[in-house]
Hints:
Number of domains: 6
Radius of gyration: 59 Å
Largest sheet: 4 strands, mixed
Strand order of the largest sheet: 1-7-6-3
Distance between the termini: 82 Å
CATH architecture of the largest domain: Sandwich
Number of helices: 5
GO cellular component, one term: plasma membrane
CATH class of the largest domain: Mainly Beta
Number of strands: 49
InterPro entries: Cadherin-like_dom, Cadherin-like_sf, Cadherin_CS, Cadherin_N, Protocadherin/Cadherin-CA
Structural class: mainly beta
Keywords: Calcium, Cell adhesion, Cell membrane, Glycoprotein, Membrane, Repeat, Signal, Transmembrane, Transmembrane helix
Subcellular location: Cell membrane
Shape: rod-shaped
CATH superfamily of the largest domain: Cadherins
Membrane topology: Single-pass type I membrane protein
Amino acid sequence: QLRYSVPEDREPGSSVGDLAKDLGVEVRSLAARNLRLVSEGGQRHFQVDLVAGVLLLDSRLDREALCGQSPTCSLHLQLVMENPLQLHRVEVDVLDVNDNAPQFPKPEVVLEITEVANLGTRLPLEVAEDPDMGSNSISTYELSPSEHFALSINVRGDGVKMPEIVLEKALDREKVAVHHLTLTALDGGNPVKSGTAKVTIHVLDANDNPPVCDPPISTVYLEENVPVSTLVTKLNVTDLDEGPNGDVEYSFKISNNAPGKFTNLFALDPRTGEIRTKGPLDYEESSAYEIAVRARDKGSPAMEGHCHLRVELIDVNDNSPEIVLTSLSSPVLEDATPGTVIALIGVKDSDSGDNGQVRLQIAKELPFKLVSSFKEHFSLVTSGPLDREKASGYNITVRAVDSGSPQRATQKTFYLRIADVNDNAPNFSSPFDTAHVQENALPGTSVFSVSASDPDEGSNAKLSYSILHNGMQDVPISTYFRIDQDNGTIYTVRALDYEQDKVFQVPVEVKDAGSPALSSTAVVHVFVLDENDNAPTIVYPSVPKGSAFHQTIPALAEPGYLVTKIVAVDADSGHNAWLSYQLQEDAEALPFQVERRSGEIRVAQALRESEDPHRLVVEVRDNGTPSLSASVVLVISPEENSVQDFSKSLDLPKSSPKDTNLTLYLIISLVSISLV
């Protein structure tokens, strides 16, 4: 909190104080921190020179217009700086300058006094007005020299000096009927300023006892907000005269010092002298009232006395605290460190004393706390970690309670939004997934859709999918599959061949759009489903296309004799690789038959002597849909001297490494298919 003072007659543009020095900041940082000035009264009297870092006067100040008759005059400002957010309070005391001369309400005052007035009789005079305060206000009064009258000065309860003319020598109307005097009011300024009023005193006969107020100056204490018509006091006035000369009437005495304001709040009974409340009294509007009462008798000429009453109000806790949200930083990042300033809060209570002492509080379960900056100003700071995924915002209720009895409280609720930070990596619904795709499916066929979620929001939750190269295949996995980066759908890039690759491991990465980006991975096992796209291949007998295999058998071979065996393989698997053997020609016309599953060709009936060679077409067909087949042509010739059996006529030597390897390949293929 900074405090400066400036005389009221300073020219606009004058320097008030060095803000940069007093705040302890560099001058060049003021513009970057967006230093700005906020006037609490709503009127702009000052400005900040960001280049020099000083507080300047924006307009000429008039202390009397700003603060009236208040003994002190302070203007309250607020300096707000950002990065980090700070609030500083500045109080500027406006110093009084003797720029006003005393002035009487009337330039000429006419008084009356009976010629039988006793020595010491006092004639009250109008109080001169001087808007200046302190030593610049009214200091004393002077009266022009007079043989009969002298000047007396009394001090009222509020410190105001009241001039009175005192009779020092008996009057004789027959000698001098009218006395002309000059009253001068002097202030305490340097140089001294003065004002004058002409005083004309008419000397009258008769009524020689004025009403007397006892005591002439009194003080009454009254609580604010008392009901209307409450009795404040009853004036004690005596007049020693009898009859009309002792009959007193009361009236308020109005002066420019208090221009009739109290007449709206107090009522005076002109006959009894009772003063009662006329309207509601508010301590916060005025803590005291000065009431002047004129007591005038009905003599001829009438005589009057004056009573001065000071009514001091006792404060009652009738004002609730007021909460002012000066600044709010919303939203705040969820990774804000404890102690980060969220809001600047001011509080004020128009009551005084304990009734105006206010304390602030918020709910204990919130991750925030209140820190007192300076008098009646607080900072709301974070007291713990924030997590947007658990709470995206907070309704913060600030409660202000005063110390009066009974207590009065008020509360203000505002919403603080928590801004997202990319602190959560996206997660797949499952780290491993299984998908199936038919071999030979057209490129662009949808295989599987992976799904991931991210509890963050905005760009931090915007996900993109990609396929990683795992190095398990000889060719990059991206040559087989692609993925839609927006929805995670996996498509084939080309037709797949079950016989070449039966299963793929497709590693998928999901990455958010945060900064820095976070990611996670999952593996999709894609199994290729076999399709009957390979016809059976006859490995024995191996005959060039368009040729026939010749086989001789004994002419007297009996039924069941093994002629030969057809051996075929199918690159497909499962049902597509189940093979069956059959003769294409009418089996009944031939003396041979083929075993459906084994492919063995045996003699079905006894052969006739000198029988011609037989031509057989053996068809091998798989069990797929549609079924595929292959065929071989056999020419079987019976010979009398032929005694070879199948084992001798078979063109596959038992020790052939090629046939041994083929059998091994068949066994490995069957075992692999069974395992899958």
